[in-house]
Structures are given as C-alpha cells and as structure tokens.
Design a protein that fits this description.
The chain has 628 residues and is of the alpha/beta class. It has helices at 12-27, 30-65, 86-137, 140-145, 148-190, 192-198, 202-239, 241-246, 250-302, 308-350, 411-417, 441-446, 462-466, 475-484, 488-492, 511-524, 541-550, 552-555, 567-570, 590-595, 599-627, and strands at 372-382, 385-395, 400-405, 426-431, 434-435, 448-451, 529-533, 559-563, 575-580, 583-588. It is built from 21 helices and ten strands. The radius of gyration is 37 Å and the shape is elongated.
Length: 628
C-alpha cells in the first residue's frame, strides 16, 4: 500500500491514502455516478418546487379568508386570473403538487434502479472479478500464509466495503453537500437572521461527527478480524465434518463456533451502541434548531417580516430537510469507516506481490525434452527457516526419479519447485538448459503433468475433470487417458458414465477413484515431465499395481518424478533421491542403495519387516480357515 501506514486504524495518512485510491476507483464509474447525481439534482428541484407550491397554497388560503392579509408571493410574478374562484385556485395548486409528487415518485424509482445497477451490477461484479483474477496469479506462498476464511471473506464481504464507499460515502456525500448548499441559499433568501439563528448548533454537530468517526474505525477493524475467524470456524466445521463426527466432537465444535459467534456479536453491539448514541444526539441538536425556528420565526411572522406559507412553513420544510441531511452525516461517517476497513483488506490482495510470474522477454517453450538439473538450490517457506539446502542432482530426459525420505524431509517442497509453484531462494533449476525463471510460465506448466497427494476435483462432469488442463480434448483422448489410469471401467459403471456430475470435491467417488481421475487428467496433457506426489497413497495395493502397469507406456520416454514409499514403486525408478532434513543424502538405484548402509536401507528394511508381518498374518488366517 505504498509508504502510508494503513495498518494503523487511526492513521490519518493511511486513511487519506485509501480514500484517494477509492476515489480513483470510483472515477472508473464516473458516467454512472454522474447519471445518479443528475437524477438527484432533478429530485431536489422537484422537491423544492413542491414545497414552495404547498407554502403558496397556504398563503392563498389565508389571503382568500382574510383579504387584508398580505398578497401571496407568486413565483416569477405570475398571478391567477381575476375571474378564478378560491377553490379553483386551491385546486390548481393542489393539482400541481400532485403532479410533482408523481414525477418525484417516478424519479425516485429511476434513481433507485440506477444506484442498484451501479453498485451491484458494476462495482461489486467487476471488483470481485479483479480480486479473483489476482488470487489466481498469486503464488502458493500467499495461500500458505493467509487463512482460507479470510480470503473468502475478502472476496465476498469486504468487497461490499468498496461498494459502500461508492454509494454510502461518495454519492451520499455529494448529495448531502449539494442539498445543504441549495437549502442554505433558499433559507438565506427567505431570512438571513433566521437562518443564522437556526444553524447555531452546526459547529457542535461537526465536532461530534469528527470524534465519532475517529472512535468507530478501530471497532470496524476488530469486527472484520472477528468475522474472518467466524468464517474460518464455519469452513473447518464443514470440511472437517467426518473427523468431527468420527471423534464425537460435535458438542465441542458447536461450543467453539458459538463462542466465536458471540465474540463477533459483542463487537457488533459495541458498534451499534456508538452509532445508536450518536444518531439521537444529532437528532436532538437538530430539534433545537426547530425550537429556535418556532420562537424567532414566529416573531418575524408577527412583525410582518415573514409570510406564513411561503415564509415560515417553507422555511420549516427546508430546515427539516437540512437537518435530515445533517443527520445523514452519522450514516456517512459510519459508512466511511466500514468502507475503509473493507477496502484496505481488498487492496491488500490486489497489491500483494506476484512472486512467481513470467518475465517480459521470457523464453517460449513448445515441446520440451524433459532434462532437469538442480544446481545447489536452497528454499525456505519463511525467512531464516530453510526447508531445502544445497540440493544438486541432474535428471536426463525420460528418466524415472523416485524421491524418498521421512515425513518433513522436503519431498513435496522439492516437487513444487519444478512447476514454479514457488521460486528457489538460492541456486537455480535448469529445464532443458534454461533457468526456470527465464521460461514462460504457461509454457513451462503445459509441459508438466501433476498428480498431488490429495488431488482436487471440481463439481462438474467426469469428462470435464479429466480434460480440465486440455479443454479441447476429444472424447476419444479423454477415454484413452482414463484407460491408462485404470479409470475407464469404474467410470462406465457410474450412472451417466463420463457425463456423471461429481459432487463437491468428488464426494461420490472413493479415494482411489478420485486419484485415478487425477492421474488421467495429468496424462491427457501428454507432458514431457510427470510429477507424481505420492499418488498411490490412497490406493490399495492391487489398484496401485493396475495403475503402474497401465502407466508403463506413459512413463516410457517421459521424465517422471514420483514421491513413493513402496518398494514395488522404487524398484521401477532409474534413480532414487534420498532426502533427510532438506538435504540429499543418497542418490542411486534401488539395487545400489539397498546394499549401502544408510537411510534408504533402513527405510527399506522397515518396509520389508512390515510386509513380512502382514504376510505372516495372512498365512495365519489361511491356516485357521483350513483347520475349520
């Protein structure tokens, strides 16, 4: 956000920086805003005309009842024809007031439609699209450090803060200033002394408004933070429902959500209390003005210096409208603090640095060979907390490389550097002889197929999920990829085959089925490099065997990185990279490494022991069945 301190809830410089930016954003919608303001000017004129006619009607009635009373002050020097009777005059004025009321109602309808169109169909829609587009550009590091509840809240709730500025602050402020100026001039035209007397409370009201604005901002900041936490609790409660029910923690989770909800409610109550206290105070000050009007205005009427209808009554209407606009300043003051809080959080996303992006003169890459070299690379998620250190090795095109290591050794981190989900902190990775950071990012990722440990599926058809990375793929290509991934048979057993709509996150499939669709999705791209981040973790041994047998052709001639633990997978690798605490401790084939004392040998022996124990258990079960 530049050099301004917007993080300080009371920071004046930060507030002005936000206001300037919001004004610049509003300028993009200047035509729609101008249309709204023109309608408001017409509404204001029609309202004043109706009020003046109503006052004129009272003066006409008074004069017709008492001819000695001063003649009505007709607008533009016009008078009724002499032959018109009293009721004709009053009926004509009443008809004009009715026509103006009908025009005003129609204009109010157009005004409401214009404001709703500006706010909900332009500002909010465009801004949400901008925020979502920026989120797609940000690296994984941003999502690692930002809670999902906060991100969702910024895209949905905080965007309302920006539209609130356009409608509740900018437009309303211009309308307020315009209205106050017009009312002030009209009142001064009627009586300078009465106007000055009635507006004696304005300085006090101005001071109260400034104090209120300063006190309410920190409360709004705290409110948005608590709402983030509330959204996070809700998200976790939905996503973790299986774990919650599985461990019988429904009561505790309900209590946690209720406690968070109550904290948010208490904070909301503080804001409501301050607003509720401020509004009656403003109302009380405006009523003092009405008291002065009745006292001093009545005196001017008795002295003959002010007419009753076009003078005192019209002045009373103007003062009431003036006081209403002044009272509206409370809503504007509250809106500006709420909008600044929401806008700051939206702009934090829009201003977040795009750490991973293509250079302007990036190298374009069509079909790569798949040669990858790690040159003394280092990587850290957080500063001064290295995850990978001094990683150096090379992979020839078409090699299958297995990455092995204990939990937390950096296997997934290493894999995530190849498609540039993150950039290395030190060293460099060469892809076909080019530094990854020099290659066009889209070209790079189109040459890499990825299957994660927990692959995400969209709420769409099976075919659309498989062709997600290649939307133009034919049905034959989709089915061929599914067959390679051993997914075709179970897909055909679904109610509508490839046109079956998946539930959220593929909830109507088993874990193994979801993973096979993810593998098919990666294979369909025909990438030169394939990244398999422990893709068989959720698949049984038999399915794993089917998948890897079917994928032999796909892996052949393609550079493949696979995070694996099972010896059956490791034996197929041309090269095994053994990681320990972020460092490469061993490199070689299974045959080489199993003979060397070291981490790989220990991990392999542990798995062999587990396999023997499982085999002995099965033999015991068979013997038991035989005895029966």
């Amino acid at each position: 956000m530049g050099s301004d301190d917007v993080s300080n809830p009371n920071g004046g410089a930060g507030n002005w920086s936000l206001i300037k930016r919001l004004l610049a954003l509003s300028w993009n919608y200047r035509r729609a805003c101008l249309k709204v303001l023109i309608l408001q000017v017409i509404l204001l004129s029609v309202g004043l005309a109706g009020l003046s006619l109503a006052g004129l009607g009272l003066d006409v009635i008074h004069h017709e009842m008492d001819p000695s009373y001063r003649s009505p002050n007709y607008p533009f020097g016009m008078e009724f024809p002499a032959e018109w009777k009293s009721m004709t005059k009053i009926g004509f004025i009443a008809g004009l007031v009715f026509i103006l009321a009908a025009v005003r109602a129609s204009l109010n309808y157009l005004y409401s439609i214009s404001v709703a169109s500006l706010v909900h169909q332009e500002v909010m829609v465009n801004l949400r699209s901008q925020v979502f587009e920026k989120l797609q550009q940000l690296s994984f590091r941003f999502f690692d450090s930002t809670a999902s509840g906060s991100i969702i809240n910024r895209v949905t709730g905080d965007v309302n803060g920006v539209q609130l500025f356009v409608n509740g602050v900018l437009i309303q402020s211009i309308i307020m200033l315009l209205s106050l100026g017009v009312y002030m001039m009209y009142m001064l035209h009627l009586s300078v002394s009465l106007t000055l007397a009635c507006l004696v409370t304005i300085p006090v009201l101005w001071i109260l408004s400034i104090l209120f604005s300063r006190s309410i901002r920190p409360a709004h900041v705290k409110n948005r933070q608590l709402y983030d936490t509330l959204i996070l609790r809700l998200s976790e409660g939905i996503k973790g429902v299986h774990a919650i029910k599985g461990f019988g923690r429904e009561k505790e989770m309900r209590e946690q959500f209720e406690a968070t909800n109550n904290r948010y409610r208490r904070q909301q109550r503080k804001i409501f209390w301050r607003v509720s206290l401020y509004s009656p105070t403003v109302g009380f000050l405006t009523q003092i003005s009405m008291t002065i009007l009745l006292g001093y205005g009545g005196y001017l009427v008795f002295q003959g210096e002010l007419a009753i209808g076009t003078g005192l009554v019209v002045f009373a209407g103007l003062l009431q409208q003036f006081s209403g606009q002044v009272s509206n300043f409370a809503n504007i003051a509250n809106s500006i603090q709420a909008s600044l809080t929401g806008a700051k959080r939206v702009f934090e996303i829009l201003d977040a640095p795009v750490e991973v992006e293509s250079k302007v003169d990036a190298i374009r890459l069509s079909q790569s060979k798949g040669a990858i070299v790690f040159e003394n690379i280092g990587f850290e998620y957080k500063q001064m907390q290295p995850t990978l250190k001094g990683i150096t090795f090379s992979v020839e095109p078409g090699e299958c490389v297995a990455i092995v290591g204990a939990t937390g050794s950096g296997k997934s981190s290493l894999m995530s550097l190849i498609p540039r989900f993150y950039d290395v902190t030190s060293g460099k990775i060469l892809f076909d002889g080019h530094d990854l950071r020099e290659i066009n990012l889209d070209d790079l990722r189109r040459n890499i197929g990825i299957v994660f440990q927990e692959s995400f599926l969209f709420s769409n058809t099976v075919a659309a999920n498989i062709s997600f990375g290649y939307p133009d793929a034919t049905r034959e290509q989709v089915e061929a990829a599914a067959k390679v991934a051993a997914a075709h048979e179970f897909i055909m057993e679904l109610p509508k085959g490839y046109e079956t709509i998946l539930e959220e996150s593929g909830g109507n499939l088993s874990g193994g089925q979801r993973q096979r669709l993810a593998i098919a999705r990666a294979i369909l791209l025909e990438p030169s490099v394939l990244l398999l981040d422990d893709p068989t973790a959720a698949i049984d041994s038999e399915t794993e065997r089917e998948i890897f047998e079917a994928m032999d052709r796909a892996i052949s001639g393609r550079t493949t990185f696979v995070v694996a633990h099972r010896l059956s997978t490791l034996k197929k690798a041309d090269k095994i990279i053994v990681l320990d605490r972020g460092r490469v401790v061993q490199i070689g084939t299974h045959t080489d490494l199993i003979r060397q004392s070291g981490l790989y040998q220990r991990l392999a022996k542990l798995q062999i022991v587990d396999d023997l124990q499982e085999r002995e258990k099965l033999l015991d079960e068979v013997r038991s069945e035989t005895r029966k």
